Fe-S cluster assembly sulfur transfer protein SufU
Amino acid sequence: MALSKLDNLYRQVILDHSSHPHHHGTLKDSNQHIEMNNPTCGDVIHLELKVVDHVIEAIAFSGSGCSISTASASMMTDAIIGKTTDEAEALIELFSQMVQGENPDHTQSLGDAAMLSGVAKFPARIKCATLGWKALGKALANPESGIGESGYIHNIEEE
C-alpha cells in the first residue's frame, strides 16, 4: 500500500525534526529543568526552560530517544516558545488528546506537532510521543522542583 502524498509529507517532517531537532542542547540561563524517562523503551529527556513572568522565553532539550520522541520534543519546543504557561498547559492537553485519537479537529495550534496525530494508531508509541510534553507539564506544575537539582528524574510510568 503506497503512502499518500500527505502521509509522505508528514513522514518527512517527522524525520527532519528527528534528524535535525530544533532547540536541542542546553540553556545557559534556565530557571527550571526536569529529567524524565520512559522505562519501557529507555527514552530519556532533559528539559530546560527559561520562564519569566509566566512566559516561556526559551527552552532546550537533550537526552536520548527514538525518532518519535525526539521529533515530538523538537516540535513541542517550537510550539511553546513565547507562550504563557497557561497556553503551554492547554497545548499539552490538546497534544495528549490528539495522540490518543481524541479531539483531532482542533490541532492547528500545535504547529508541526499536529503531524503526530497518526501516533494514535500505534498505542505502543504514545508514551514516546508524549514524553517531552509530560516533562514540560511536570516542570510547569512544579516550577521549583527541578531548579538546581541534578539527576531529578521522573518516570513516565508515574503518570
Summary: The domain at 22-148 is CATH 3.90.1010.10 (Sufe protein. Chain: A). The mean pLDDT is 85.
